[in-house]
Amino acid sequence: MGPDDLIKGQDAATAQKAAETRQQSAQRSIPSLLHAVQCRTSNCALPSCQKMKRALQHTTVCKGNTSGGCRRCKKLIALCRDHALHCQEDKCPVPFCANIKQTMQQHLLQQKLQELQKLQVLVARQRLQQRVYRIQRMARMRAVSGPAAG
Fold first, then answer.
1. Cα–Cα distance measured from residue 123 to residue 129, given in angstroms and rounded to the nearest whole number
2. Distance, CA of 26 to CA of 94 (rounded, Å)
3. C-alpha of 104 from chain center
4. In b/e form, how buried is each residue of 44-75, taking b as 16+ CB within 10 angstroms?
5. CA quadruple 40, 45, 48, 52: dihedral sign
6. 85 near 99, Cβ under 8 Å?
7. Do 104 and 84 meet the contact criterion of CB atoms below 8 Å apart?
8. Mind listing the pLDDT tens digit for each residue in 94-135?
9. 109/105 Cα distance (integer angstroms)
10. CA–centroid distance for 124 within its chain
C-alpha cells in the first residue's frame, strides 16, 4: 500500500463522512419541509418554518431553477428528493415529490428491463450452447458408430 492508496482511502472516508452528514442534515430538515408545506399561519412561530417557506417561495420565482444553476433551488430539490425516497403518499403536498417519485419509478423500471434483457441474452446463449453440445454429441456418436449402411 503506497501513499496514493492512503490518500484515496482518506478521500473515500471523507466522502463517506460528508454523505452521512448531508443525510443527517436532510433527516433533520424534512420535518421542517413537511411543516412549512402544510402550515397556513403567515407568522408561524417556528423559525425553520419561515426559512423553509422562503425557500419554497424562491423556487417558484427563481430564473436559475430551470437551468439548474441556482444553489438554493438545488438544495431544496435535494431535500425534496430525500423526502420522496420514503414518501408513501399518493397526493403529497411537498413540491417536486410526485415528479421525483415518478422519475425514480421510471429508473427502477428501466433497470428491471435491462436486467430482464440481460437474462434473456443469457438464456438464449445457454440454449445455443445446449444445441451446439447436442450437435457435437450426435456427431461423435455417428463417428464412433461408423458410416451408416445404405
1. 10
2. 14
3. 6
4. eeeeebeebbebbeebeeeeebeeeebeebee
5. positive
6. no
7. yes
8. 999 999 999 999 999 999 999 999 999 999 999 999 999 999
9. 6
10. 30
Q: Which three cell numbers stand for residue 126?
A: 445457454
d(CA 116, CA 124): 12
CA–CA separation, 143 and 36 (whole Å): 82
Q: How far apart are CA 7 and CA 141, in angstroms?
A: 62
Q: Side-chain half-sphere of 93: how many Cα atoms within 13 Å?
A: 11
Nearest alpha carbon to residue 51 among 39, 31, 36, 38: 36
pLDDT digit string, tens, across residues 3-56 = 555 555 667 888 888 777 777 777 788 999 999 999 999 889 988 999 999 999
Specify the residue for cell string 471523507.
14
Class of residue 95 by CB neighbours under 10 A (exposed 0-12, middle 13-18, buried 19+)? middle
